[in-house]
Amino acid sequence: MKKYLSALVCGFGAGVIQVVPFAKTFSCCLLIPAASILALFLERKANKIPINLTYPVSKGLIIGLITGLYAAGFGSFFDLFITYITKNNDLIATLPQLIKMISELPFGAELKQSLIDLYKMISDEIETSGFSLMYTVSILFSNFFINTIFGMLGGLLGVQIINKQAKDITDRQE
Amino acid sequence: MIEINNSSSLVCARCSGIYAGAFLGSIISFFFSIRIKNRHLSGAIALMLIDVLLVTIGVYEYQKTIAFFTGIILGCIAFLYLYEALVSLFVELKSGQKN
After folding, report:
1. What does pTM read for this prediction?
2. Chain B residues contacting A via beta carbons under 8 Å
């Protein structure tokens, strides 16, 4: 646990920002990689690794993956919790646009209608009870799938930044 | 979101730019070997942050074109970075197998 404390801290931060109304507009694909990069820098600082030492790429990948997992867990929890309390969320707010977008998709009319019905059912369930099993499953699945991928990408980017910085310092010392 | 012929993209203009930039970066890396430095990445991130900041404080309204192009620059540079990291990862894994 202590080994991946930086991933926990940054994953928690990313999870919280994912549900903050203004901040989440900037979070689509940059927040999780940024959290992974920050987690790597924190990890290096916590373990007092000198800045002229390079970092193993595989370790960066693992820290990125764990940051993504934490962010997905916390993000999903806060999203579902706020949805339960307020009985409202982005899905309900954007339902008309979503229906318009589905009707533009190149699928058969029957499939489009069943998709629209499904979204309306989810929306109704959230408005009445604040909870929808389908919404919960889809949020968990998409968050865990997307955040782990973006977390690993951020881990790779972070390692590359750290290693280039270390290389520059070594070159200057020589 | 970006709209072409009444069909909109499924992600925002900035993200579309990032993905398009990553695609562009993959093509560039296929033909040329470019060494990207930290300052290039910092510059690309700064461009995007400046755009977000100026929109937030109301200097100008959100423009898809600017968001898309700042995304392309960041996506392209980030891909070239990732590509180098992936090469290092494979080298690391290969040397790990030998040891």
Report:
1. 0.83
2. 6-8, 10-12, 14-15, 18, 37-38, 41, 52, 78, 81-82, 84-86, 88-89, 92-93, 96
Choose, out of B79, B82, B91, B93, the residue to mutate when testing the contact with A (most A CBs < 10 Å): B82
Long-range CB contacts for residues B54-60, cutoff 8 Å, separation at least 24? none
What is the spatial distance between Cα A24 and Cα A41, in angstroms, rounded to a whole number? Answer: 23
- B76-89: per-residue pLDDT in tens? 998 988 888 888 88
Say if the Cβ atoms of B6 and A104 lie within 8 Å: yes
- CA pair distance A48, B93, nearest whole angstrom: 25
Residue type, A12: F
What is the widest separation between alpha-carbon atoms in chain A? 69
Say what the ipTM of the complex is: 0.76
